[in-house]
Design a protein that fits this description.
This protein has 647 residues and is of the alpha/beta class. It folds into 4 domains: 2-106, Immunoglobulin-like (Sandwich); 114-271, Immunoglobulin-like (Sandwich); 281-442, 3-Layer(aba) Sandwich (Rossmann fold), CATH 3.40.50.11820; 447-622, CDP-glycerol glycerophosphotransferase, C-terminal domain (Rossmann fold), CATH 3.40.50. It is built from 20 helices and 34 strands. Strands 24-23-22-25-26-27-28 form a 7-stranded parallel sheet, with helices on both faces. The chain has a 6-stranded antiparallel sheet with strand order 4-3-7-11-10-9, covered by helices on one side. The protein has a 6-stranded antiparallel sheet with strand order 15-14-18-21-20-19. Helix 8 (401-404) links the parallel strand 26 (386-389) and strand 27. The termini are far apart.
Length: 647
Amino acid sequence: MRITYDFNSIRIEDIGVTELYLQARKERLTFKKEKEIFSITIKELLCFFTEENCPLHFINENGQLIDSSFFQKKVEFHKNNYLNNEERIYYVYIDKNDLLTIVFKTKPSIFNLYSKNCEITNIDKTSFEFYFKCKYFKPIAVVLYIKSRNKKIEISSNELFFEIIDEDENFFRVKVRANINADMIEKLESQSKSIKNYNVEAYDLHFSYRIKEFPLSDYPPRIKFNDKKILQINDEVWGEANEREMFLLRLYPTKQGNLSCRIFLVPKLTYNYYLSMHKRNKKEVREKKPVIICVEYPEKAQDNSFVFFKYLLTYFGDKINVYYLLADNSKDIKNIKGFEDNIIQYQSSMHLILFEKADIVVHSHTPNYVLPFFSNFLEEMLDEKQKVFLQHGIIGSKDVSSIYGRETTKKFTDLFVVSSDREKKEVIKNYNYSDAEVILTGLARFDNIIKFRNLKKDDCKNKTVLIMPTWQKGLDNLSDRQFRESNFFKIYNSFITNPQIANLISDEKYEFKFYLHHNFQKYTHLFDNRFVQILTEDSYNVSELLRESKLLVTDYSSVGLDFSLMYKKVIYYRPDEIAAEETSKQETNFLPGKIVKIENDLISEIQILDQSEEYRKLLHYIYKFNDSNACQRIMGEMIQKLDIKIF
């Protein structure tokens, strides 16, 4: 079969039929036949159909569809194989079912032409390889797309080397080598400053290709990653970003078997030290004193890990080497005054040097935050280190076992800090830890909370209401438009714009502050600030906000338990529309505050500012201790169970 065009008609020959038609519902358009060549003009097509995105199939004299898979010879299409009349364009192509097809205006999809089996086959230090199969139309260029999963950011590369292997007349196998260059990274950096320091963004890898016959639609398919054995050899693609930095693509498969990556910018000094680590025996870097690194988020210094770091430095600074990891762009730099000699700059060469020497990693979130970037090599090294999970808050309303639970193939932590008998039973039962691994000590930051509680004087003039909901799974990856459509946004935006809040502010001298979880901070600008202050994490410290506020409104956040320990009132706002699926069955048995589901009831409850005696009596069930010795207990457990040698 051969298809060509002149300035106003389509010509089809060697098609093996006596009559040729286009079928549209019950109507047919007949092709003219002359010397075994069928033709149709664009004028005839425009009179017959102009419906976009509605492909029509060709049929023969018996009403049978023209199936290209039965052709023994090569199917040939002329270059620039489409009719164009004042932007009214018709494309003739072969669809995914091998049927000869025509469509008006809509470019044919690449999904018609390739076999949906594009897959990565190899990773080396500077590139990776993938292959795909396609039919009828040979690629003239292959394009790689790297798309940010949570932001509207996309970069592409046309500089891909590829080789086409003919499997038969109409089917081809294409081998591609993908090299990422500095221009792509520069473009990515110009669109997203978050690539600097700790880049939390995930990127999905797509591909597309061009053919000479006609343009294809813009939506590119994903590259598959089915053979995980490839990662046992290598998972890193490196390149030079600029004079000072290297870039790393850390490739990995998603749960759906697609190829994704993390991208990091790494100083060259750090990169060079990393290369030297591969050549060195790990036993050569042991220190005489135990080395402990404490970390929260790389840009944070205000939670349990930072409190515990200061305790260790104060009471054990002469017996152990203790360090805190912090990014140089952190807004919490002001908190480290007096501790500068023990602060590690994130991603510096010293970061890797001390990580290599570290015996213990103390973490309040995932221990992976101690890594300057991700790679098999560093993660295997982290697995060998002892880890202490201080937690971010008490486990209560939400089941977070999918994040913090022990897996058979990977050790999240060695010691898991809890604050009550109830919480210890919960972690042993549902998080897959043994009794010895779960240490009942209390949270490090609670030492400061109880000290504050014992010193503070009640301020009857304080009517500050802090609204601090937690994040919800599945909402943190939405676009701004999608997030505005979520029930979470609608419910909280309705609450903070309720006219009764304006009345409380003007008549009763209330003050309202709204602070979103770290994972939702990027949506802060979407909320209405007519009546309430919308706070950003760059400008406010959570601990200070809790101390300064009189009443807390939350949903499932563990800060409610912190707040109640200050002998302050907590209200749990949980409308049915945004009920968390992962909520624990035990939640209502111990929460130190009333659960409210209706907005007007919440407004009424806010007008009673003091914590009731009923909820104060529950505090021992939440937090077993009534002292400020949690840090001391944690260190005691570490010395005993991790066999820390202190001389």
